[in-house]
């Protein structure tokens, strides 16, 4: 499976989710390739930290690929891996478009703030452009860094549900310090000790929703 973690807004949690997904799938003994398609190279930095933390025994492979041939290269690599996870930059759309044309699944995390949610139209527009080239792409959206207080989350959820291009997963990831703490150590939240059980449970619930939708799709 090829997953792109995308979006138009910076800082929505793309790299956090991409790296955690890589660690999570690798822990299930899947052969994972993490593709850094962002010139900021945050996923590459994470992998470098991880390499140090694990003393060189990395559990996934990481490469940086950008440019117009991103889709071609990912397609070729897809024969060699169980899962490919592509982390794209928020502002850049060239790499993101290329990644989306070759992906089976797209994940669009949104922080429940106005400026973030307002970029939903741009995500819809991007999907309008990409879907003719990749009609079977399954695109999901969900709230990241959800605050337990206030009703921002509910308002944001209503908007996200309104997109006919996106499957809304009602399994938000809370604003949990474990994500930053784990990243700083080159770890995924499933590996951080002491374990933040709430963060891990939320992450697994999110994954379950994606898996379920994929199974349903296969049965159709
Ligand atoms: N669920 C969460 N809870 C708490 N902090 C989070 C969560 N998700 C992401 N963060 C934090 O938010 C910041 C931005 O996250 P991240 O770098 O993953 O976003 P991004 O979408 O990849 O940004 P960019 O568009 O710059 O690539 C980081 O400091 C990260 O640790
Ligand atoms: Mg990023």
How is the secondary structure organized here?
Blueprint: E1 2-5, H1 14-27, E2 32-37, H2 42-53, E3 61-64, H3 70-77, E4 83-88, H4 94-102, E5 105-111, H5 114-117, H6 120-130, E6 138-144, H7 152-161, E7 167-168, H8 177-184, H9 197-219
Parallel strand pairs: 1-4, 1-5, 2-3, 2-4, 5-6, 6-7
Please characterize this protein's 3D structure.
The chain has about 220 residues and is α/β, with parallel strands linked by helices. It has helices at about 15-25, 40-55, 70-75, 95-100, 115, 120-130, 150-160, 175-185, 195-220; strands at about 1-5, 30-35, 60-65, 85-90, 105-110, 140-145, 165-170. A 7-stranded parallel sheet has the order 3-2-4-1-5-6-7, with helices on both faces. The chain is globular. Bound molecules: adenosine-5'-triphosphate (ATP) and magnesium ion (MG). Magnesium ion binds near residues 14, 15, 38, 42 and 87.
